[in-house]
Every structure is written in C-alpha cells, then in structure tokens.
Design brief:
Elements lengths: L24 H14 L7 E7 L5 E7 L2 E3 L2 E7 L3 H8 L2 E8 L4 E11 L2 H8 L4 H9 L9 H14 L10 E15 L7 E7 L4 E6 L2
Antiparallel strand pairs: 1-2, 1-5, 3-4, 4-7, 5-6, 6-7, 7-8, 8-9
Helix pairs in contact: 4-5
C-alpha cells in the first residue's frame, strides 16, 4: 500500500521552548506523563522498549512503565523472554513514549539493570492473583503449541498455588538508567520542537535540535 504524499496531520496544539522546558529531564517527563494521563489514553504509561541481541539485530515491543524516579524507569517482565536474553548480552536500551493526541514523543536512551529482589517481590505481590499465576504459566517468547496448553498450565499453577503464589525466580523488574532524553513536540509544517538532555558530570546539558 502506498500513501499519498499529503497523508499526514499537521501539528500545532502546543509548543516547546527553553523558557518553558524544565531544567531537569525527570521533571519534564513527569509533566508530560501527567498531561497524557489527563488526556484519557488507554495506557498513558505504555512505552516501546528496543533491545539488541548478540548478533546486533534490534527488536522492539510495548511494555508498561510501572515506576520512575531520578534513579530510572522500571518495568517488569520474564527474564527468560527475548528482551531478557537481549539484555543479558547488551545492556544498552532505548525507550519511546508516543502520545498522538498531544502530538508528543519522548525518547530515553541508557543502560539497564535488574532491580532488587525485594522490589520485584513487592510489586509482584501487589498484582491481581490471576496475573501472578500468569507469570508462572507463561514461558514468554517460547513456542506455544496451542492456547489449550497455556490454559492447562494456568490450571496447574492454580492447583499448586491456590492462595498466595510466590515470585517466580525468572520474573521481575528492570530499571532503565537514562543517559539521554529527547522531547519532541509536533509543530506546524513539520517544523517540530526537539530538545535533548545529555547527562554530564554534574548537570544535564540541554540542546535544541533541528526537527
């Protein structure tokens, strides 16, 4: 399928400049995430995570941001999944948020590490029972013969852990530790506002970028 050369929306709801942007990228992120939450997105905290495997091949998927502070951005997954295996050999990672109704995106680049066992346990036990069972039953990214096989494994773990399933040893959280942020605000005629934050020895260096 080909798209017409003019098959795009012209942006112009908001602008971004040095007068309005926060000096701290975490504060700017928090401001934009709060705007997205108020804009009634289904999952305002959804982000695309890109990893690279041992052969240098990238892959991306959507995960949900669950926690963040100035130490980094946390999401949870199966450590034996495709992204988990990528992270084992290459800790460099990129996250991307896109909020179309606000004409905004944020790119975050950095390295990733596992969070502590205690942090993973605290979050795991805050999840609904069925979600905790699902973490046990899913061999994430592996070949599945049929959905019946998955349902049968769910039933197996419900029988094994009818009340309070423990944290699976292969499941937990990762923390993305940022080294670079980029905030993109759509503008008219594709003359977008783009600002980067590069981590320095003490402060974050802010630069305006060509669109």
């Amino acid at each position: 399928m080909k798209f017409k050369s003019d098959s795009h929306n012209d942006y112009g709801k908001f602008k971004l400049d040095l007068k309005s942007i926060e000096k701290n990228p975490f504060e700017q992120f928090n401001r934009w995430l709060s705007d997205a939450q108020k804009a009634d997105f289904i999952d305002a905290n959804a982000m695309s995570i890109s990893t690279v495997n041992a052969d240098g091949k990238p892959s991306s998927r959507i995960v949900l941001l669950k926690q963040f502070d100035e130490n980094g951005f946390v999401f949870f997954t199966n450590y034996q999944s495709r992204k988990g295996k990528d992270i084992e050999v290459n800790p460099n990672i990129c996250a991307l948020f896109f909020w179309d109704k606000l004409e905004r995106q944020i790119r975050i680049e950095g390295t990733i590490e596992k969070i502590s066992l205690l942090e993973s346990e605290q979050y795991y036990h805050s999840r609904p029972y069925q979600s905790r069972i699902g973490a046990w039953a899913s061999e994430q990214s592996q070949i599945l013969e049929s959905r019946f096989t998955l349902i049968r494994k769910v039933a197996k773990y419900i029988t094994k852990y009818p009340i309070n399933p423990p944290l699976p040893p292969f499941w937990g959280g990762y923390r993305l530790i940022p080294e670079y942020f980029e905030f993109w605000q759509g503008r008219e005629s594709r003359l977008h506002d783009r600002f980067s934050y590069q981590k320095g020895d003490r402060n974050w260096e802010i630069q305006r970028l060509y669109p």
